[in-house]
UniProtKB/TrEMBL annotation:
This is Carbamoyl-phosphate synthase small subunit N-terminal domain-containing protein. Gene3D superfamilies: 3.40.50.880, Carbamoyl-phosphate synthase small subunit, N-terminal domain. InterPro entries: CarbamoylP_synth_ssu_N, CarbP_synth_ssu_N_sf, Class_I_gatase-like, GATASE. It comes from Rotaria socialis. It holds the Pfam family GATase. Residues 2-142 form the Carbamoyl-phosphate synthase small subunit N-terminal domain.
Length: 283
């Protein structure tokens, strides 16, 4: 059984056992307090470049579904994107024995296919409590036998995240929909797209920096996504401003990063919260 260590930039070390891929990695460490949803979280582009810490104590018990299954709209049904975007997974207790009607493999084997490492046997609640006092920080996972000095801390905000998560070319879903929505993809989740299609919208997904003509659509949707939009999404903000300043007023709406982009487009300021806390719903 191979061991590995999570090392935080403040010098804290958490030793554990490996599952998934046996590879070193680094990223921003964030905590997720949900009881379920590790498949959805790992494939959420918003976690691109982040080391995901799950505080729920038992992970892996319902396995992983087929990540190639599509729904009636041609959208991947059980995952939020076509790959794992998180850099690594940290859990307290991992079980290889899974039981679920929809599962086809274990979490460990799925992580290994995507070359994503995991550590278990870690006191994840201590990590979460430390973040409450000290805030989010960078971390790295170092496999047993590797010199920690050889692995550098890595801030995902210093790379071009939009190029990693955004669609490359425009694509249309539900072409017979009654209303036409253009979605600027800054890290779109499949379920956001699915809901729009279920509401009988024709959805045109475009890259984050794609120019969008207002007269071609009934509304503009801004997806969720990773990183700091002040650094990453200047072209998107220009597009939003053009819609806001147009003589023809059409709906603009967004989720997560999309909200931040709307705020920036109307001249507001945004700031990153101190705590890297993620959960399914927040009030």
């Amino acid at each position: 059984m191979k061991r590995g260590t999570l090392i935080l930039e403040d010098g804290s070390k958490f030793d554990g056992f490996t599952f998934g891929a046996s590879t070193n990695t680094a990223g921003e460490v964030v905590c997720h307090t949900g009881m379920v949803g590790y498949v959805e979280s790992l494939t959420d582009p918003s976690y691109c470049g982040q080391i995901l810490v799950l505080t729920f104590p038992l992970i892996g018990n319902y396995g992983v579904p087929d990540d190639k299954t599509i729904d009636d709209f041609g959208i991947l049904r059980w995952v939020e994107s076509n790959k794992i975007y998180a850099s690594a997974l940290i859990v307290s207790a991992y079980t290889e024995d899974y039981s679920h009607w929809n599962a086809i493999e274990s979490l460990s084997s799925w992580l290994k296919k995507h070359n994503v490492p995991g550590l278990y046997g870690i006191d994840t609640r201590t990590i979460a409590k430390n973040f409450v006092e000290d805030g989010t920080m960078l971390g790295k996972i170092v496999m047993e036998g590797t010199d920690p000095k050889m692995i550098s801390f890595h801030d995902q905000n210093r790379i071009d995240l939009m190029t990693l998560v955004s669609i490359r070319n425009p694509r249309v879903f539900n072409p017979t929909g009654k209303i036409s929505i253009v979605c600027i993809d800054c890290g779109l989740k499949n379920n956001q797209l699915r809901i729009l299609c279920q509401l009988n919208a024709k959805v045109t997904i475009v890259p984050w920096n794609h120019p969008v003509k207002q007269d071609e659509f009934d509304g503009l949707f801004l997806s969720s996504g990773p990183g700091d939009p002040q650094i990453q999404c200047s072209d998107t903000i220009v597009t939003i401003k053009s819609w806001i300043n147009s003589e023809t007023i059409k709906p603009i709406f967004g989720i997560g990063l999309g909200h931040q982009l709307m705020a920036l487009a109307v001249g507001m300021k945004i700031m990153k919260l101190k705590y890297g806390r993620r959960v399914h719903n927040q009030l």
